[in-house]
Prior knowledge:
This protein has two domains: 4-62, CATH 3.100.10.20; 85-251, Four Helix Bundle (Hemerythrin (Met), subunit A), CATH 1.20.120. 48% of the residues lie in helices and 18% in strands. It is α/β, with parallel strands linked by helices. Helix 2 (85-96) packs across helix 9 and helix 7 crosses helix 8.
Amino acid sequence: MQPRVLWIVRDMYFIGSSGERFKVKIDDSAIEFAARRAYCLVIDGDGLISSSAIGLARRFDVPIVIIDGSNIEGFTWISHGKSVEPLIYQVHAHLNLKTMFSSLFLKSLRENYERVLGVKLEGDLSDVRSSITRILEERWTSSSRIKADYARLLLSCVCWAALYRAGLNPDIGFLHDKLCFDLACEFEHRVVLEAVKISNLEGAELRRAIAKSVDQSLQAVIERGTLSSRPHSLLWHIHAHAKSLASTLKSGLFNYKPFREV
């Protein structure tokens, strides 16, 4: 069974545990989620998490990623059994190949959106982002910017977890200040373009609707262009590309290939 993201996007929640399951209480209702099935926990809102739930996350090595405004903070579990090699090579790449990797992620962002929107995007990151926002607002609604920004933030949380699982530091980026925002560039066109189609809701109701849309995008299976290639979910591809990036940095060769649909 494929792992899933456990989304907690609301205020006044309580995260506890019951055996090997997370137990989330919201108002008068409660849901349980098997820890072994959790890819990560993404939390946005004010609530409480018990020490037993934290212990369960540590036991199953489930990253906890918290949204703080427009920023992301993730918590890792100290493990002496994990290799530090990917981190060493990441620092080396950051010092010596930052410009090259920045160009790679920007190119991926630009080309993916050019393909699905049918436009030409030029300039630096700020120019490309401004152009994308303008096109989204023209084709959908004036609230597209809010939906796109929040969907991108949720996607970046998942990328944070994927990079941590691959042994990299998600908080040291090339194009952005965090690597999780860099990795999200490769996949956000698939996530954002679905999120902007959501009805014009407000506040917490809108955030929950976007989280549901992002989750559906992550679970959507991407058909490959050849019969020999097995189709996988978008979450699978994010995980695979994080591992590929870690392998590339370790090899010292500039041969990382961003996500591209065939």
